[in-house]
Structure formats: structure tokens, C-alpha cells
Amino acid sequence: MRDISTREDIELLVDTFYNKVMIDDYIGPFFNEIAKVNWGKHLPIMYSFWESILFGKMTYKGNPMMKHFPINEIKALEKDHFNHWVKLWTESVEELFQGEYADAAIYKASNIANLMGYKMEMARRLDNL
């Protein structure tokens, strides 16, 4: 297997991952029912996000954390949800790629998930004060 090396590779990875998410019983409802994601708009944003994260190309403009707070207010985004997100992401990476960038994609996703899980928990605690 080869490593992630192009935007096309990122698009393949992101598409593979979100195809799993869309039908996943555990986290799919956050995307499909609560956020009502417009996949035609969301996927290109995610391509740019991961291109920025992995290759340092500043093609992503946005604040992913801020997009999650309103969802967290409707239904708690728990650490287990983010852990499951990482599991699906890792499966997708490992099905398609291996190498330095593939390892980085898994590592960075894990860090993102840990931070998101923590921030969502803190937001819920502050709401309950």
C-alpha cells in the first residue's frame, strides 16, 4: 500500500470515511438527523480541512470547534462518540494507505477527537452551572 500524498488521496479517504459515518448507527444520527449535513457542501470542506492538517496547505477556512457546540446542545457529544469517530477514521485510513502521512492522519484525528470530547464536556458543564 502507498501513503497519502495528494489531495485526491485525501478525497478518497474522506469519502470512504463518511460513507461509513452516514450509515453508522452510533454517530450517523449526529450528522444525518441533528446537523442534517449537506454532504455536497460538507465533503469539500473536509477535503480542505485534512489537506491543511496533513500537508500544511492553508485551504481550510473555518472553526470546526464552533460547528460542534450547537449539536452538543441538542444531544451530548460524548467522548465515546469521538472515540467511535476515530475508530471509523482509523479503519478507513488503514484500508487505503500506509506510511508517514497515514500514521499522521490517525494521530491527528485522535488528538482532534480528544480535544473535541473535552471541549464538548466542558461546555455541557458550564451550561449546567
Characterization of the model:
It is a single chain. By secondary structure, this protein is mainly alpha-helical. It has a single domain (7-127), classed as Orthogonal Bundle (Globin-like), CATH 1.10.490. Helix content is 76%, strand content 0%. It contains 6 helices and no strands. It has helices spanning 7-23, 28-34, 39-55, 64-74, 79-96, 100-127. Helix 4 (64-74) packs across helix 6. The chain is globular and about 45 Å long. The termini are far apart.
Outline the low-pLDDT stretches.
Answer: none
Number of domains: 1
Radius of gyration: 15 Å
Could you tell me the CATH topology label: Globin-like
Mean pLDDT over the full residue set? 95
Distance between the termini: 51 Å
User: Which CATH first-tier class would you pick?
Assistant: Mainly Alpha
Classify the secondary structure makeup into a structural class. Answer: mainly alpha
Number of helices: 6
Number of strands: 0
Biggest sheet overview = none
- CATH A-level architecture: Orthogonal Bundle
Q: What general form does the structure show?
A: globular
Helix content: over 70%
